[in-house]
Design goal:
Length: about 425
């Protein structure tokens, strides 16, 4: 009886992941077919797209010059579409257990590249007849950097079992405080410290309400976002507007690494960035090492998976969660300062839901820092391209283009491209004596 009763359950359990993998494969194949038909064959035979690699407005530490690369739009996009279809066919046939999401991310990047080539084709409707690849990568890296800060905050919190929906509010708080401090001191180190403090305080408030009073973590996070958003709007009206010297819009300076910053494309993107970008890289390595290579990380993951079992071996569950939520909030607060330092003056609501997109990137990355970085790059590209595609006069409404990043966010969160398992105790209240 035992064998008969368990075999069907096992078969069903193995069927669902296989079915989801095939759904992802079909989606990738459809994207490839769309690319071939619309971006490839939909372009006139003589159309061409030009790629340039020299960033604009970089008089200092400018990279070595690289000439323009001209491609035939139709056949380049046909090849890209065939590559996407091939990846989809490989996933459909082989049904690999690992790397499916990475393949999907690669297809997404190829699709965005094909879209750019099609939008900037000549002859075509766009007044812009070239794609400055380096400038696009630099712009999208600024968005991706902020998303990495937010997703790292989410990883820190949710690995310990607390859902941090308040990342958006911590971004806003960090941006507001960072703008005031940077404007008065002209020092972004102090601004980053101030952002970390306000983010940590909001994390402490989230942890206190969630752990002390066992409040619903989602509701508490939404309330914090709403409260900080309203408070920042009020303070902007009452403080920053009458005293513009508190919101001068300073931009963080780039710190070029000698020689490496001269490498075409790669140099300006990775080695001629602000200090916040380099800090982000350090945090990714630090969080990864701390969570998966240290005893502290083992305690965090144990608390996030089975807090009762962790408590039974002497781990203070509440203290571990407090520490992680506060640290996660501090990281998100610094992310808000980094956003302000790349955008200029603080404006109410200008984070535009990046905190929620960062959460989606964390889910896409399977609650791992490395995966969150890959997802943040994809999301950062989509967000940035939704801004600049308007200048290419794509025959699509600007509002539809601006919806694109959020459609991806909903798709990921809903599990339509594959479900991932969060920490078992994520979001669940911990009852202790």
């Amino acid at each position: 009886m035992t064998v008969v009763s368990t075999t069907p359950a096992s078969g069903v359990a193995m069927l669902a992941p296989s079915a989801r993998t095939r759904v992802i494969a079909v989606i990738m194949a459809v994207i490839g077919v769309f690319t071939v038909l619309v971006f490839g064959l939909g372009s006139v035979a003589g159309a061409h797209s030009s790629l340039t690699f020299n960033p604009v407005n970089l008089s200092v530490a400018a990279p070595w010059h690289v000439g323009t690369l001209t491609l035939l739009t139709r056949w380049t996009n046909v090849v890209l579409g065939i590559v996407m279809m091939s990846i989809g066919a490989e996933v459909f046939i082989r049904k690999p257990r690992r790397g499916v999401m990475l393949r999907f991310g690669g297809v997404a990047i190829l699709f965005l590249f094909a879209l750019l080539l099609w939008a900037a084709r000549s002859p075509g409707p766009s007044q812009v007849s070239f794609v400055n690849l380096t400038a696009i990568l630099i712009g999208s890296s600024a968005v991706a950097m902020v998303l990495v800060f937010g997703s790292l905050s989410g990883v820190m919190c949710e690995r310990s079992g607390v859902v941090n929906i308040a990342i958006e509010g911590q971004f806003v708080g960090g941006a507001f405080v960072g703008s005031v401090i940077a404007s008065t001191t002209h020092n972004f180190i102090y601004a980053a410290m101030g952002g970390a403090v306000i983010g940590g305080v909001l994390g402490l408030l989230l942890a206190f309400l969630s752990l002390r009073y066992l409040s619903d973590q989602i509701i508490v996070g939404v309330v914090l976002v709403t409260m900080i958003g309203s408070l920042s709007s009020y303070l902007n009206l009452q403080l920053l507007t009458p005293f513009p010297q508190l919101n001068t819009g300073n931009l963080a300076p780039n710190l070029a690494i000698p020689l490496l910053s001269k490498i075409p494309v790669i140099g300006p993107v990775f080695f001629n960035q602000t200090g916040f970008f380099y800090l982000m890289l350090v945090l990714v390595g630090t969080v990864s090492f701390a969570l998966f290579k240290t005893r502290y990380g083992l305690h965090v993951r144990a608390v996030g998976e089975h807090p009762q079992a962790a408590a039974s071996v002497g781990i203070n569950v509440v203290r571990v969660r407090y520490i992680n939520v506060v640290l996660g909030g501090a990281i998100a607060g610094v992310g808000g300062v980094a956003f302000m330092a790349s955008q200029g003056q603080f404006q109410p609501g200008y984070t535009s839901g990046l905190g929620y997109i960062a959460l989606a990137a964390m889910i896409f990355g399977r609650w791992r820092p490395s995966g969150a970085v890959v997802a943040s790059v994809i999301f950062g590209l989509s967000v940035y391209l939704s801004y600049i595609l308007v200048s290419y006069q794509v025959p699509v409404s600007i509002y539809i283009l601006q919806m694109f990043p959020y459609i991806i966010t909903i798709t990921v969160v809903a599990g339509l491209i594959g479900r991932v398992r969060p920490p078992a105790a994520d979001g669940l209240p911990y009852h202790h004596d």
